Amino acid sequence: MIESSPPSIPALRGPVPLSHLFLHSFLSAGHSAVDATCGNGHDTLLLARLVGSGGHVWGFDIQPQAIAETGRRLAEVGLADRVTLLPVGHEELERHITGPVRVVLFNLGYLPGGDRSVVTRPGTTSAALVQSLRLLEAGGILLVTVYPGHSGGTEERDTVESWAAGLDPRAFHCWRMAQNNTAPSAPYLLLIQSAS
Ligand SMILES: C[S@@+](CC[C@H](N)C(=O)[O-])C[C@H]1O[C@@H](n2cnc3c(N)ncnc32)[C@H](O)[C@@H]1O
User: Fold this and answer.
1) For the residues 55-80, what does the mean pLDDT come to?
2) Does domain 15-194 have CATH number 3.40.50.150?
């Protein structure tokens, strides 16, 4: 059973709906996926829908409030069983997941509606990105929405960019997708596919 299909004409306003298009393309029933930054649970919910009852999702966030909100959102539609929510930092990814997974998703920055001083940070983000690539199955993708606009965001962007630029092109297909007609500080999407 298909539990979620993309809207027929998605509005590509910013990187998040673009990331969702890729999720619809790469994920289907029975797959495994990771939401490395659950936040309010919107992305986790989509992952849970796409992997179906035979798949599984792991969700990470350091803020109890984010884990609670994500759990509430999943329970509301009866999908909590297929998601393991972990109130720990994504830099501990490999302590909790052995893989392989089809998708790892990051939505960097701060929790919308929450404490803006709690943000993803260059050191923990890069540790988690390195682990994510080790967890990916061949052909699987890592999606990262990068927000250079908040305090500390440019340092995080620079760290992510230099790490991605150094990846072996025989092992990874690395894409940077940014809107041309927005400010340089606007969020954008990075996609890294593990070569099959
Ligand atoms: C932009 S929000 C995520 C939005 C979310 N994907 C959604 O659909 O609502 C970023 C989240 O990353 C979380 N975060 C910050 N540092 C983290 C870390 N080291 N590990 C896991 N989550 C972290 C924040 O608590 C925040 O909830």
Assistant:
1) 98
2) yes
